Amino acid sequence: MSWVGRSAVEIARAVRRGDTTAVAVVREHLDAIAARNPEIGAFRIIRTEQAVAEAQAVQEREDLTRLPLAGVPVAVKDNIPVAGEATRNGSAATSSEPAAADHPVVARLRAAGAVVVGITNVPELCLVAFGDSVYGTARNPWRRDRTPGGSSSGSAAAVAAGLVPLATGSDGLGSLRIPAACCGVLAIKPGPGLVPPPGEDWFGLTENGPLATTAADLALALAIMSDDMALATAYKTGERARVAWEPQSGVSGAVPVPSPRAWRSEPFELRIAIAPRPLPPALGVKVDPEFVRAVAEAGETLRVAGHTVVEQEPKLPARLGFATVLTWLRCAAHDARGLDRRRLERRTRALARAGRALGAVGLHGREEFERWRAHGADQWFGDADVLITPTLAAPPPPAARWGARGLARTVAVNVGYAPMTGVWNLAGWPAMSVPFGTHATGLPIGVQLIAPPGGEPHLLALAAQLEAAHPWPRHAPRREPARTA
User: Fold this and answer.
1) Phi and psi, residue 360, nearest 5°
2) H helices of 41-166, where?
3) Mean per-residue pLDDT for 189-210?
4) Are strands 308-311 and 136-137 parallel, antiparallel or unpaired?
5) In whole angstroms, what is the distance from residue 425 CA to residue 423 CA?
6) CA nearest to 59, candidates 24, 92, 85
7) Is the pLDDT of residue 251 over 70?
8) DSSP string of 314-376?
9) What band does 267 get if pLDDT is binned at 50, 70 and 90?
10) What is the distance between the alpha carbons of residues 262 and 259, in angstroms, rounded to a whole number?
């Protein structure tokens, strides 16, 4: 029996019971990575010798029978330090010095029995929704002529290809949810304070989170990364609490006042709003009709499961879209500071230059960002418990060397296919992408679930219900490159 392609829950249970060993599991996954990584480009570093040695150490632990991730191979995104490995963040301009210690997320995964088998590819400084850098071009396992998205590019590709059951990613403006939707896997961006963020957190926008192929695996990984094991069963219970924004009675204008809401005792009886086309016409971005249909079908699935489902009629504020782009450029300028510009890609230099120029004349999006996070998101969200939108607006673009291109093309393609995730980073709200159907191109479709602060259990529970009602293919089949049209 091969353990490649099995879930993290299955692998850990087998290792704890003695049905297999951590070393055997890790060796099988390393063999699969060696065979398939050349065609997918998911990994920058494959830790063959180190991973086998670490698997042996796990196997010899006295607490082996109690480890929730006993022997589970995991991949780590190249912006999170792993002791003994350089954290390059997809750039030749960053330090090649090995990290002295694990990031807390990596330390928690290892403490739970996981084994880090490799470091995954990202675009330079994790700035874009593509998968190319000086270290190679990551490709979508479903169609290798298409990007796996970004910036958690290699992590999503590795999970979708079955090379690891779990991977870490980070999400500053959609960098977990975008590649998850492109590759047909699950990913969750938690709210602030739940999981330790990466070192460069984009002014508090970026959160670390897991990618997986099942709701049970995703919940377990999030529980370990957050050091809150109560989340491991959240996909079954869906329990949470919330303090919502409500206008103050008798006062004109939008005044944020914390006001407790009464919640139903049954955890799965939620009020769910669907927004198949949430973007305002002023942005000029059209949503693919198949993605629109997927949101409606996901809403109907959850209505049948017992939830109240309504349509969210107001569009997102147009000014918020512009603020998101300005915030993105401001982050690029910030992250490029102190790096040798001669070693940065053309794309990165262009983004950083635009961010500096716009910031110099006061165009940085900060005011809209702060207003949306303070109360604007809650006001727009209304009385829904969860909102469902498409994760993407269009299928992923080609896998190409986008880093050699300039500002206009980079912004146009990024915004044109992935405009609907960043606003929830600005809000600081948890959000996730769930596979739901297959596009005519043969690529997966993802729907985005968003909840107010503290709503991670609701998201996990709804993902589990969608999984039970409409199971998705857990891994992309291995095949020859498809058509380029």
Assistant:
1) -65, -25
2) 48-59, 104-111, 153-160
3) 97
4) unpaired
5) 5
6) 24
7) no
8) SPPPHHHHHHHHHHHHHHHHHHHTTS-GGGS-HHHHHHHHHHHHHHHTT-S-HHHHHHIIIII
9) low
10) 10
Segment 38-67 shows an average pLDDT of 98
| pLDDT tops 80 at residue 259 | no
Q: Which amino acid is at 299?
A: G
Question: Quick one: DSSP state of residue 66?
Answer: G
Beta carbons of 425 and 323 less than 8 angstroms apart: no
Question: What is the distance in angstroms between the CA of the first residue and the CA of the last residue of the chain?
Answer: 38
Does residue 265 carry a catalytic annotation?
A: no
Of the chain, the percentage scoring pLDDT greater than 70 comes to 93
77 is catalytic: yes
The contacts found for 64-68 with CB under 8 angstroms, 24 or more apart, are: 64/15, 64/16, 64/113, 65/16, 66/16, 67/12, 67/15, 67/16, 67/112, 67/113, 68/12, 68/112, 68/113, 68/220, 68/223, 68/224, 68/229, 68/232
Spatial contact of 381 and 452, defined as CB atoms under 8 Å apart: yes
Residue 241 has pLDDT above 80, yes or no: no
Residue 320 has pLDDT above 70, yes or no: yes
* Residue ranges of domains in the chain, CATH in brackets: 8-234 (3.90.1300.10), 237-469 (3.90.1300.10)
Torsion angles phi and psi, residue 392, rounded to 5: -115, 165
Sheet containing 115-120: which strands, arranged edge to edge?
43-46, 115-120, 73-77, 166-171, 207-212, 186-189, 431-438, 444-450, 386-390, 271-274, 308-311
Question: Is 236 annotated in the active site?
Answer: no
Q: What is the pTM of this model?
A: 0.94
Cα 229 to Cα 146, 219, 225, 371, distances in angstroms: 37, 9, 9, 33
Name the token pair of 179.
Answer: 């590649």
Amino acid at 448: Q
Question: Mean pLDDT over residues 321-341, rounded?
Answer: 97
Identified catalytic residue from 7, 133, 175, 226: 175
Question: Are 89 and 95 spatial neighbours (Cβ–Cβ below 8 Å)?
Answer: no
pLDDT of 240 above 50:
no
CB atoms within 10 A of CB 244: 17
Torsion of CA 276, 278, 284, 290, to 10 degrees: -10
- pLDDT category at 245 given cuts 50, 70, 90 is very low
Alpha-carbon distance of 79 to 168, in angstroms, equals 10
- Within 10 Å of residue 167's Cβ, how many Cβ atoms? 31
Q: How many C-alpha atoms does 262 have within 13 Å on its Cβ side? A: 1
Residue 1's CB: how many other CB atoms inside 10 A?
7
User: Which of the following is catalytic: 7, 133, 151, 433?
Assistant: 151
Select which of 77, 133, 152, 189 is catalytic.
Answer: 77
